[in-house]
Fold:
Amino acid sequence: MTRAQRRKRPGTLPGRFGRLMTEGPGFALLMLAPALLVLGFVIGLPMVKALMLSFDTIALRRPAAAGTYGLHNYVRLLSDPDAWGAVLRSALYMLGTVAGSIALALSAALLTRRVVRFRALSRLAFLLPWTVPAVVTALVWGVMYDGNFGVINRLLDHIPFITGRDWLIDRQTALPALILAQVWNEFPVAYIFFLAGLHSIPDELYEAAKIDRAGAFAQFRFITLPQLRYIIAVIVILLMIMGFKSFPIVYILTGGGPAGATETLTVLTYNTAFRTLDFSYSATLGILAVLVSLVLVLGYLRVMTRADTGKGGAV
Amino acid sequence: MADVTFKGVEKTFGNLKVIHGVDIDIADGELVVFVGPSGCGKSTLLRMLAGLEENTGGEILIGTDVVNGLPPKDRDIAMVFQNYALYPHMTVAENIGFPLRMQGLTAAERKKHVVRAAELLGLESYLERYPRELSGGQRQRVAMGRAIVREPRAFLFDEPLSNLDAALRVQMRKEVKLLHRRLEATMIFVTHDQVEAMTLADRIVVLRDGRVEQIGTPEDVYRRPASTFVAGFIGSPPINLIAGTVRPLPGKLGLVPDANPALTFDLPEEFDFSSGQHITLGVRPENLVLVSPAGKQELEGKVVFCESSGQESAVTLDLGGLQLVSSIWGEEAPLIGNMVGVEIRAGEVLLFDERGIRVDPGVAEQEHRDFTDAE
Amino acid sequence: MTSPRRRRLDSVAGQVFKAAGIVALGIAVLFPIYWMAVIALTPTGFSRSLTSLVPAEVTLENFVTLFTERPMLRWLWNSIIVAAASSFLSLAFGTSCGYALSRLRFRGAGLVLILVLATQMMPATSIVVPLYILFRDFGLLDTMQGMVLGHVSLVAPLAIWMAKGFFDSIPADLEGAARIDGCTRLSAYWHVALPLAMPGLAAIFIYGFVTSWHDFLFAKTLINSQALWTAATGISSFRGEYFTLHELQMAAALTFALPVVIVFLVMQRRIVSGALSGSVR
Structure:
């Protein structure tokens, strides 16, 4: 084989430009550019637009005010009880979904971890709600919560001292009712994590504990929980993010009502834009939401790196 | 085939400098082994030669071409990786034929070369299998087949045998050596295993912390190690290194070990040491002769540990705090707890100055030694 | 010390207790799905008179109504088009980006990664409001193209992040070997990395498809005409329209949820084992 033969290769771009694009810094550009351009268009541009909107006044009620730039939306945000009420409700919603999901997922994972017979079936049962779309979750729970004919009230009829009510219309129960629907829809994510976490605890630890005469509770308290602590941290943040983002369940079931009792930050952002038609203020609320989620993402990254390094040292 | 030259090669990762100006000349057709403990930079050097990493200083030449900045495909080299790096989605034949496919050879031409390479390595009956269906040794052969199927200017081996079990490792070592003899090709082989280095190499490059410690034939490196580091790294059981201070004795000089100042070792007369100098005396275990029972020898030690591999035994002795290892062949090892006499075989000592650098007779005060061998 | 017999009894009791727990919790968790099916199969208007937890009379009339009197088929078809197009586009653009993030060392790589993660995790409501204004200016509002683009903003970050994960699991030495064997970086990606990532790319496509299929917010905001609605928008409208006709609502919900549930059942083993091995190390 001669050297001249070797130099000819099929499918390569010719010349210096080809070399630049297939090997050098051009290659990184070639690989990154398409995605970055698309993301720039569908995410970057809207974010810039949101910033511009938030300093502008684009609102149906005051069409003449368009073009008056300033910090007025932010000033309004600082003293807007509706906005801070929405932040509080988002926080409650996150808290409720995190606590509920973890309790449910951990119980399910502890129960099914060592199942031998019907293993796949038992896991499937706790994963299935995950595959149900949020829209469908909203419809199903809406039907079950129905004050007149809902199955929940009808089941409660058989239990003394507890009376049914119109769960989604009652100010007291609307938010918890939504939280329950969200928990049902999203706890399987935590369940998978817990199953994986429990799976990775070496059996020797439990055997050693048994030899040291630890009972079931002591094993849970001194082995399972400490071994799961990083996973729990990851799940908490993940569920917080999911709860914070949640939109369809609240929007479809209550639209933020009754009288704003379930208006979370995402729902308020949406309603401000498409009900009140104040796009500028809505964009401002959206930016507030982005800032909150950035804090959560940073927390998530921190926990993830901790979990990586921590686990490396522990096991 | 071509020679390979490293000229003042440096590598920096971020702020961390891992290769500090390495110079190596490798002749055409030579089998050179880079050896050193993990983290010494041997794999980095190889990957820089391959073009998988860029050197941040100096020059690398293949033949007369400076290959700095050239992508791997244009360097015309072949490499066998530690984890074999076989393409899992291709059959053995496709794996071996891949470099030819990239050169634009037709399927028929490729087949001819692939079959020839497979015959050379005894892989004829596995050509249609996938890597996951092969044993470790067979995978290793496929990786070698992929390297030899074209005629590269140099073959690079990055710890290719370290994933194999002991018996297979010896077998494959032999095959690499035979392959080298048959192809008469320039080969660079990286390993952390000094036995592998000793048995394979025409010349050995001992590396430490990104610097060349010594370059030489296996014989050189074993008998004339440039430093205490090389002496300690090459040889098993490892050399006895006795650090101590030079003291005058009647008519000659002696070494008083730090570990037991009550002892004195005679220093050969042809070395010019000055009294009070801190030096290291090295004795290979096979040059430490046991005389049992202890008689009129000057040195006497207690047997504290003994490891026997059948024909060879490594006996650890305690000389009042100074521990020495002696290896004995074909005789029965002494019992633990016994006192035995110890003699150093005449002339078989290595001496290192306070910097750990070996000194030759009569040149103890030399200014500077160049570690690379003379041209 | 307890006697061996006593201990065996204890462990049997433990097993029974556990099994009972699983069954009880499982029933509670699966009940909404079961109830959805029960109501969907009850004749229109009769679910309110159900007196037990099993259907008194099973019928498919709700589904017939759904597909004959409402454009359910049309909406499902729209959903399929949008989901396929947006996850295909996200895959096409995201794979190479994921590869670059996994393999290449370049300035700003960490920032790109965090940005991608952040966009995936921030509320979509923050994007959709400005996107609505932009699309109104570009004339993309109320078009399928606009909705596909909107869903790309949802799916692409996911695709990039997942693709990076899959490439991370392929040993980099394989591409090193390919480059030595005569490949450029680009052809090593094409001949070696991409074929090996194929199963992962299929998984990304499915995840992307499901994400788009499930989306409610973008579909609701960016589309106005009923003819262009996706199934998610379509069935959500039933809550307002048939507020008291639970049977139709549930039939629509079931129709919408079923495809994803079937995909999940088929791929269940792989999803679970993938999550068990990959997500937490």
